[in-house]
Amino acid sequence: MPVPAFGLGTFRLQGQVVIDSVSTALELGYRAIDTAQIYDNEAEVGQAIADSGIGRDELFVTSKIWVANFARDKLIPSLKDSLRKLRTDYLDLTLIHWPSPENQVPVEEFMAALLEAKELGLTRQIGVSNFTIDLMGQAIAAVGADNIATNQIELHPYLQNRKVVEFAQSQGIHITSYMTLAYGAVLDDPVIQQIAEQHRATPAQVTLAWAMQSGHAVIPSSTRRANLESNLKACALTLSEEDLQRIASLERGHRLTSPAGIAPAWD
Predict the structure, then answer these.
(1) Nearest-CA neighbor of 191 among 161, 157, 219?
(2) Model pTM greater than 0.85?
(3) To pair with 243 at 20 to 30 A between CA atoms, which of 32, 42, 199, 249?
């Protein structure tokens, strides 16, 4: 199954807040949920999924392996722990969350362990997140491009990451955009507001539709029912070629996430 174009992100949401967000999203029709070991909310996400009564085969659940669990003897046990918290026998997609700081664990080692997890049936698909062209090349050398479902990267109108996108697409690797709304910064952009008015849509819907029409998956998060419902409507919005080009012109290399000691040398 390909990575769904639209899903729910859970970054920074914890406790009852994430339970409510996931529960509401599932009720509204969301079927893809994205979490991570470092978010410290897998158990709550699992609870919301279990309480929803929705069949596991109807859902697409993604989690990410944290850097502390990259070593060959740690990765699979940590994934099994994630599965226990999420109350499921398998993930649909498991990602390497960030590259290993200072290459402490070689790409070849953690990708081989991740591929083994796939072969064991612990995850249907595997992929990477926050990988540069060089790191993607190393991952491809380790397990083959066919085994890398996606590279999840910061991507929004102000940071379009074109070099990484072009390389990934040339290898048949899908891009998942996170922070697609740039923490809300792009919602005040005059160009996006103008396009939204023309389509009788919201700036968030326009931005999400732009990313999806560019071929990327999106995983916006929200704690408010109205926003969750509104964001979902982006799936039904079709922008014109002119709209897409106008948004493409907003690129300014404005990166919001680059944690010291973990972030790679970006392209």
Answers:
(1) 157
(2) yes
(3) 32
